[in-house]
Design brief:
The chain is an alpha+beta fold. The protein has helices spanning about 90-100, 125-135, and strands at about 5-10, 20-30, 35-40, 55-60, 65-70, 75-85, 105-110, 115-120, 140-145, 180. Strands 1-2-3-4-5 form a five-stranded antiparallel beta sheet, with no helix packed on it. Strands 9-6-8-7-10 form a five-stranded antiparallel beta sheet, with helices on one face. A hairpin with a 3-residue loop joins β7 and β8.
């Protein structure tokens, strides 16, 4: 599956960020070796970017393929859910299954701390209603709900869209297996 996928670097703004960036998998839509448009195949855990958002990326001074624009957000609502410490894997899988049955197309998890989901074509109120039982059960908190129009470049204040200069230090790409994913 990863044969035609590429890694796109999302650089973050500000010296107070604990990470300088995050790598996301993307499928080329109209791209050459150094720039083009890509459809994200994974969602960000740190900024509201969702799988299937169409972005523009280009090679920066470090020879990384870096996100430089958000061209067309997908129609999905992006959510971030912070789990209660100690929530076990079985509970996380049950949550993902319930969300999938309620309309979530994709849920990814970062260890046992966060779940990021995409909810294509669903009204925000329905997304919140689908996740509310897990909040009431004490499994964690819904910390972000972001609509497609709020994933456009003008709303992405934490993303540095300027390509990095050669002297800039950025994180190295991780293999796909290093990220815990749940395709529910």
């Amino acid at each position: 599956m990863t044969d035609d996928l590429v890694k796109v670097l999302v650089r973050f703004r500000g010296p107070d960020r604990p990470l300088r960036g995050e790598w996301l998998w993307a499928r080329p839509v109209d791209a050459g070796p150094d720039c083009g448009t890509y459809a994200l195949q994974t969602s960000s855990f740190l900024v509201p970017l969702a799988a299937l958002d169409v972005v523009r990326a280009e090679r920066n001074g470090e020879d990384d393929l870096q996100l430089v624009d958000v061209l067309a957000p997908s129609d999905a609502v992006w959510t971030a859910f912070l789990t209660r410490p100690g929530t076990d894997g079985a509970t996380l899988r049950q949550m993902g299954d319930r969300w999938h049955e309620s309309g979530a197309a994709w849920t990814e998890r970062s260890g046992a701390a966060a779940l990021v989901s995409t909810w294509p074509g669903m009204p925000v109120a329905d997304v919140i209603a689908a996740m509310a039982p897990d909040v009431r059960a004490g499994h964690g908190n819904l910390v972000a709900v972001v609509t497609p129009q709020h994933r456009r470049r003008g709303f992405q204040l934490d993303i540095d869209f300027e390509p990095a200069a050669p002297s800039h230090s950025v994180p190295q790409p991780r293999s796909r297996s290093s990220r815990s994913l749940m395709n529910v």
